[in-house]
Write a structure and sequence with these properties.
Strand content: over 45%
Shape: elongated
Low-confidence stretches: none
Length: 154
């Protein structure tokens, strides 16, 4: 009877080596050399960095991508910028789960123009909308339109 061959080399890493390798994969830090208005053009920071004492990545740049991102274009869990995209987005144009800005689009949106599941703004469109002009499933406003049809009987 022929012997079976084991596919691949044996794992010779210790648990500490495996853990440090996994941490290295989950932590990303990249910053471009180019700057504009004393900010890096691109800054990427994701995951914990014990050397800096950061529990999560903080990116600051013209284009910022990270757990906490601040920039002209910010993408991240918490994003603040002119254009912000993320779980909690704050900016002139904000898109995210919780969005606040001049134009806000998200699950919960607050802004001059707000669109989302729950929208609060001068112009609000959404499932539940509150604003001067409101439209949606349930809307309250000076001018409002919602799914309930009102009929007049004479």
């Amino acid at each position: 009877m022929p012997k079976r061959e084991v596919a691949g080399p044996r794992n010779l890493e210790t648990p500490d080596q495996q853990q440090s390798r996994m941490k290295a994969r989950s932590t990303v830090r990249r910053r471009s050399q180019q700057t504009w208005f004393s900010l890096p053009l691109i800054d990427i920071a994701s995951g914990p960095d014990p050397e800096r004492g950061e529990k999560h990545g903080r990116a600051r740049g013209i284009i910022a991508i990270g757990d906490e991102a601040r920039g002209w274009l910010a993408l991240g869990r918490k994003a603040s910028g002119v254009i912000a995209l993320g779980g909690r987005a704050r900016g002139i144009v904000a898109l995210g789960g919780q969005a606040a800005g001049v134009i806000a689009v998200g699950g919960m949106a607050v802004g001059l123009i707000a669109m989302g599941g729950m929208a609060l703004g001068a112009v609000a469109v959404g499932g539940l909308s509150l604003g001067l002009i409101a439209a949606g499933g349930r809307s309250v406003g000076v001018v409002s339109a919602d799914h309930r049809r009102r009929s007049r009987t004479s």
